[in-house]
Amino acid sequence: MSPLNIVATKFAGNGVGKVRRIAVAVVIGLSLVVGAAAFYVLGTRHGQDLALERAAAGIFARGVPAEYDGLRVFVCGSGSPLPGRAQACIAVTAGESLYLVDSGAGSPAVMQLHGQPMAHLRAVLLTHLHTDHITGIPDMNLASGVMGRGDPLLILGPAGVDRVVRGYNEVLALDRGFRVAHHGIHLLAPELGVMHAETAEPGIVVEENGLVITAFAVNHEPITPAYGYRFDYRGRSVVVSGDTVVTDNLEAQARGADLLLHDVLSMRIVGTMQAAATALGAYRPAKIFSDIPTYHAHAVELGPVAERTGVRMLAVYHFVPPPGNYLMERIYRHDLPDGTVLTRDGTEFKLPAGSNAIHVAHP
Questions:
Q1: Is there a single domain that holds both residue 185 and residue 39?
Q2: C-beta separation of 259 from 231 below 8 A
Q3: For labelling, which of 65, 76, 309, 319 has a CA lying 20 to 30 Å from the CA of 112?
Q4: Which one of the listed residues 49, 69, 102, 132 is annotated catalytic?
Q5: Is 13 helix (H, G, I), strand (E, B) or coil?
Q6: Are residues 24 and 139 in the same domain?
Q7: Long-range CB contacts (< 8 A, 24+ apart) of 286-293?
Q8: CATH code of the domain covering residue 346
């Protein structure tokens, strides 16, 4: 190598080294700044108060608009009695009215955390009276009342709903009195805490301001009657299956709908869990796992349902069991048709009036 090349190489090396030293110094400086800021926010009272004030302001500023020109569907519970998610709950907004299909455990918290317009809640429509569809009702009643619901909450469902509501009203009577005494009648009017029940029959159960809600029979035997619900508003349509096996009646109600939300069971996962429980001598769980496939729709059945009914979009909820990891999700996807939406707690669908679009957003 010539002397000139040696000098050039040396200067080039020195230049690279200088750049590296500068870069390291910048990174260290930024780290110190970030560290100091983090210490200020987390380690000092003033910093904590400032962060807390901003977080609180964000909570009350992020509420979802109460009115929607079309149908807005919010999944407030995508799970089932098996652990992992909030239990069954679908919220449907049409114009200024909000309706729930079921309210299982954990669903009121999902509604509140996502800023749903609970003051506009008109009724809870029950598909059937299993615990994972009704145990969220008391907290939903309280939370919507606190937010300003103007009328007693209507609980509409199959035969037996009046007994459930009477029981809840009696169990919660002391609580209502305590809360009114604490917060005052102007915030929590006593009469608004008492829920009203209405027994539904198949057919139109709500018809107001252009919204039509139709109850229809499904098959969840031995639980009978059990219903699904269809929502029609301003040319858009949503069908919620509730818990059921695949039936001709459900397919007739779903035909041509924009969105079908259907319960789903993975026989591959449930069968494996049953076999494992049996092998370990856990006969009680094994019995449960052998029973539940008889009254839920299997994932492999839902592709043909979507094809026969011509729905624009198929989405699944009430997972049996809820997919708690990537493997379980892939098993569900393997058995469902391409394009199926696997909902989560907080998934939202927007179906604007005057359009065929369906906008999907996950939390």
A1: no
A2: no
A3: 319
A4: 132
A5: helix
A6: no
A7: 292/265, 292/320, 293/265, 293/267
A8: 3.60.15.10
